[in-house]
Amino acid sequence: MAYDKFTVLQSTAVPLPIENVDTDQLIPARFLKATERVGFGDNLFRDWRYNPDNTPKKDFVLNNPIYSGKILVGGKNFGSGSSREHAAWAVYDYGFRAVVSSFFADIFKNNCLNIGVLPVQVSPEFADKVFAAIHADPKTELEINLPAQTITLIATGESEKFDISPYKKDNMINGFDDIDYLQSIKGEIEEFAAQLPL
Amino acid sequence: MSTTLFDKVWDAHVVRKIEGGPDVLFIDRHLIHEVTSPVAFLGLKSRGIGVLYPNRTFATADHNTPTINQHLPVADPLSANQLNALESNSKEYGISHWGLGHQKNGIVHVVGPEYGITQPGATIVCGDSHTSTHGAFGAIAFGIGTSEVEMVLSTQCIMQPKPKKMRINVNGKLGVGVTPKDVALFIISKLTTSGATGYFVEYAGDVFENMTMEGRMTVCNLSIEMGARGGMIAPDETTINYVKGREFSPKGEAWDKALAYYKTLKTDEDAVFDKELTFDGSTIEPMITYGTNPGMGMGISQDIPDAEHVEGGAATYEKSLNYMGFSEGDHMIGKPVDFVFVGSCTNGRIEDFRAFTSLVKGKHKADNVTAWLVPGSHIVEAQIKEEGLLDILTEAGFVLRQPGCSACLAMNDDKVPAGKYAVSTSNRNFEGRQGPGSRTMLASPLVAAAAAVTGVVTDPRTLIEELV
User: What part of A 47-86 touches B (C-beta under 8 Å)?
Assistant: First the structure.
């Protein structure tokens, strides 16, 4: 099994209503020097989270104790920029299991799906509702139901469906990954390769 | 049925389609580097699986390598550790490894094409978003995450849904001082950094047809900056002349067979795209960015737009300008410059150094500017010397460094200090991209040259006119 199974997640959420959050903010390049996948959570949003002397920046949301939870709610075009999977690892290692946004950058979204972080793309209107609800009450709980493909504001019952391919959904529910699948069709791949022009 | 260039290459590489899921896509060429591969190799080990086709993967060290004194041991232990891991993993699995000091070492997206690893109609991936560069040859090339690096190593395939298709047409005569970089920054400024998300782009029109391969690589390189999965340009005589005879290009009978394939690689006349955009190339100015994403660019003679004229939230816009220390309505011309960086997979090729040199010739580097000129590869470095560019650069007070990604992402010591301004020919102006607190203005090698000799943001056309 490649990662934790994901079915239904009920949690408070951390709001980050900034657009175009790029992977250099999620994890700056200077923290990409590990040869193992450990400790990236400590450097999630490093330069927004800490001053140059490593003291926490009080006004950044991850340093505000009233916000917590396993869900990160970001602004539009979340995860733009580089292909570094380290950005998704940092999100996961910090303790988030889902990211909610009205729009995701492609590679980041794909990386999340490959490591067991669920990207939940909602309408801009629903994203606004979620931000408003958390702003009004930081203890607002959300439910993300992967089998039903719904995200719900538990207090009001307001809910929206989200998209995910049946294949990826099945993978996440069972904790499988693409390598498991590809290994199982290796013979077919080798036959295919034999007839290629390049 | 009429199909696009993208369809032709993608469909020819689909091993299997999964109902309600992605395509299993076969990858012809896989490039790896020291930063995004170590965990993939660990994955192979923990699963007890090997590399299926070691001759389809090529390793080069570039992201964290020093750009001076490359003959000495790498001082940073973490960087040294990654470089050693790339070497030992490559050796263990029989992968070609072009490490630091190797004659073929250089930026992965510069050396791939130089040695003919990049071929028209191929599928090419690398754990680096600027893999889109190779689309200049009519290849489908894009960046992947480390999990996918592991997939390609172990099965030579990845699993992705087929993206939508967009065509961007640019026709017309480019003005004096307008380079491929300006064309790309112009397009991104129109589309924003998410305008092409979910799409694979084909660039068409005489502006691209008239570009050299170096110029086309610059354009395709920046496709990711508007969110596109990648960008490609149909191969033509320019492409074939570039590819022919390179070390890893097909030879003899294999070349004839490949050539027949390359000639099929174009979009049918009546093929339909999900989205199609057209721009007039003659309206493009030399470009510069003023904010903290590559979509925040404008003609260099313009003023920074007001928030109300910009797509997106005012709060995000204000945060960005605050970071840069700029205000709405500011002129960009005359803004202070502390650093100039010429290099990267975007603009680290010979043509870029020719352009830079043409403008600084007979002038002198401004005293307030620290300039880093970093060739993309040893071939580029050698050409700079052979063509006499180095003599001109030296005369003008510039020093040439050794190949690597360098200050583009500042993983090595080439870091712009906090609060300082850099005019950079690289690809991203994100907060802290060139060092914590650094402030980046993206531009072409000509705009970089104009800044380097005047010490402030300067329209290169004013200097070119002086020359004429």
Answer: 47, 52, 75-77, 80-86
Min distance A156 CA to chain B CA atoms (Å)? 27
- Percent of chain B's residues with pLDDT above 70: 99
DSSP states of B256-308 as a string? Answer: HHHHHHHTT-S--TT---SEEEEEEGGGPPPEEE-SSSTTSEEETTSBPPPGG
Report percent pLDDT > 90 for chain B.
96
Convert the pLDDT of each residue in B284-300 to its tens digit: 999 999 999 999 999 99
> Which domains can be identified in chain A, with CATH numbers?
8-194 (3.20.19.10)
What spatial distance separates the first Cα and last Cα of chain B, rounded to whole Å?
52
What gap in Å lies between CA B14 and CA B6, rounded to an integer?
13
* ipTM score: 0.95
In angstroms, what separates the C-alpha of A2 from chain B's closest C-alpha? 10
**Residue environment code for A39-72, b if the CB has 16+ CB neighbours within 10 A, otherwise e:** ebeebbbbbbbbeeeeeeeeeebbeeeebebbbb
Residue A2 has pLDDT above 80, yes or no: no
Using the CB atoms, write b or e for A143-158: b if 16+ within 10 Å.
bbbbeeeebbbeeeee
CA nearest to A104, candidates A117, A92, A93: A117
User: Which residues 122-161 of A have a C-beta within 8 angstroms of B?
Assistant: none
Q: Which domains does chain B have, with CATH numbers?
A: 5-163+230-265 (3.30.499.10), 288-467 (3.30.499.10)
| Termini Cα distance of chain A | 34
- d(Cα B49, Cα A182) in Å, to the nearest integer? 12
Which is more confident, B89 or A2? B89
Distance from CA of A124 to the nearest CA of B (A): 12
